[in-house]
Design a protein that fits this description.
- It is built from 6 helices and 5 strands; from the N terminus they run βαβαβαβααβα.
- By secondary structure, it is α/β, with parallel strands linked by helices.
- It has a single domain, classed as 3-Layer(aba) Sandwich (Rossmann fold).
- The chain has a 5-stranded parallel β-sheet, with helices on both faces.
- Helix 2 links the parallel strand 2 and strand 3.
Length: 167
């Protein structure tokens, strides 16, 4: 049913929760998971002119490499994974990448905001759901999971990286 499952990620707990679903679906359908990180350099357009644009782009790419490395760490050995960093507007890039000829399902995390928060903040997930030419599965990390996730995050000493089993 699915050949390629697109998973936009930002390295957040919501993104990791979406990955769990994507990996399960990929295994069931013998599909490839394509994880993308969208570097939205334009969102920094309001910064003063003396800001080093190269530095911002470089920082976003570095953040993206970290998020995509985490995808590869979490990937089961029996699921094919592709990763890519793409610059642009998150919702536009995701919709562009989600075509029946390339990825035929989008699985993405959402913060689960509702009501006035959603109206004020906007939502990449909402825009993707409205504009995507392929089905979109949104995975919500509820407040209880979010709180327990932040409780489990170990404090690493300076220059020390927590072990994946600790996270």
């Amino acid at each position: 049913m699915y050949d390629c499952i697109l998973v936009p990620t930002d390295g957040s707990p919501e993104g990791e929760r979406a990955l769990e679903y994507a990996f399960d679906l990929a295994r069931a359908h013998d599909a490839t998971v394509k994880a993308i990180y969208v570097a939205n350099v334009a969102s920094y357009g309001g910064l003063p002119m003396e800001t080093a644009w190269e530095g911002i782009g470089e920082a976003l790419r570095s953040e993206g490499q970290g998020a995509l490395a985490r995808v590869e760490e979490l990937a089961p050995p029996d699921v094919a994974v592709e990763t890519e960093i793409i610059e642009g507007s998150p919702s536009q890039v995701i919709v562009r990448e989600a075509t029946p000829d390339s990825c035929d399902l989008v699985v993405m995390g959402t913060h689960g905001r509702g009501g006035i928060d959603r109206l004020l903040l906007g939502s990449v997930a909402e825009r993707v759901v409205r504009q995507s030419p392929v089905p979109v599965l949104t995975v919500r990390l509820d407040e209880k999971e979010s709180a327990s996730e932040s409780d489990r995050q170990p404090e690493a000493a300076e220059g020390e990286t927590p072990e994946p089993s600790d996270v």
